[in-house]
Amino acid sequence: MNFKEIIENRRAINFFDPKKEVSEEKIKEMINMAAKSPSSFNLQPWSLMILKDQETKEKLKKLAWDQPKVTEAPVIMIFLADRNGWKEGHPFVEKNFKEMVKAGSMSEEQHDWFLDAAKSLYGADIEKQTAFAAKNTAFFAMSLMFAAKSLGLDSHPMDGFDHDGVKKEFKIPDHYWIPLLLAVGYYNTSETLAPPKWRKTYDEIVVNFD
Ligand SMILES: Cc1cc2nc3c(=O)[nH]c(=O)nc-3n(C[C@H](O)[C@H](O)[C@H](O)COP(=O)(O)O)c2cc1C
Predict the structure, then answer these.
(1) What are the extents of the domains in the chain?
(2) Which of 3, 124, 155, 199 is deepest in the core (most CB within 10 A)?
(3) Does residue 102's CB lie within 6 angstroms of at least one atom of ligand 1?
(4) How does pLDDT run across 146-184, given as a tens digit for each residue?
């Protein structure tokens, strides 16, 4: 499938075949592909929880509007957007800086300048921190959906869930915000998929405010 075909064929699949497992290799491959996503300062403020166990998925389903795909899909991913992922001392922030020094794009002396630049953009309040974490994690999520499709898998993003309830049930630390859940698996071909949804046109998307 070329990229245009991936774009055309990806759908939010409501019906998964619960008997068709997704191999560990495919899960790793799609995550490694999605990891190529761009992010602000390359900070990559995303993490994933991967749920496969039926009992655990049942717990999540109760908190996700009882959507059947949560238990029918063999794999559910909880996307975690790290609101602290720009802060000095954060392990990945410091790793990112070290990698930039190693690659020659920054010098050791620029450490404080770099951290201050990130702080000036994201440090003001929780809204800025959530926006930072959520937008970057959303790019990662979209890449993951396309990666899944390219590997012959289907997916379904969901924000129909009790955000705080999921955080509590899965002991997710407070600095994470959950932009979405993602069901991943194989389309159950015995069920009929709704026709493709309408999309805004070029003229409806492009605006100006003269
Ligand atoms: C962030 C996000 C959250 C969504 N949440 C849900 C959801 O909770 N339940 C659901 O049935 N569909 C959900 N959807 C799926 C959308 O309804 C679907 O993507 C849209 O109607 C377009 O359909 P398509 O993806 O098949 O082209 C969500 C999609 C996105 C991107």
Answers:
(1) 8-85+131-205
(2) 155
(3) no
(4) 999 999 999 999 999 999 999 999 999 999 999 999 999
Q: Is 180 in the pocket of ligand 1 (CB under 6 A)?
A: yes
Q: Averaged over 87-113, what is the pLDDT? A: 97
Q: Above pLDDT 70, what percent of the chain?
A: 100
**Which one of 135, 142, 159 would you pick to mutate in the ligand 1 pocket, going by the greatest count of ligand atoms within 8 A of its CB?**
159
Fold for the domain defined by 8-85+131-205? NADH Oxidase (3.40.109)
Tell which phi-psi region holds residue 119, choosing left (phi > 0), alpha (psi between -120 and 50) or beta: alpha
Residue type present at position 28:
K
For residue 77, the model assigns a pLDDT of 98
Q: Is 142 in the pocket of ligand 1 (CB under 6 A)?
A: no
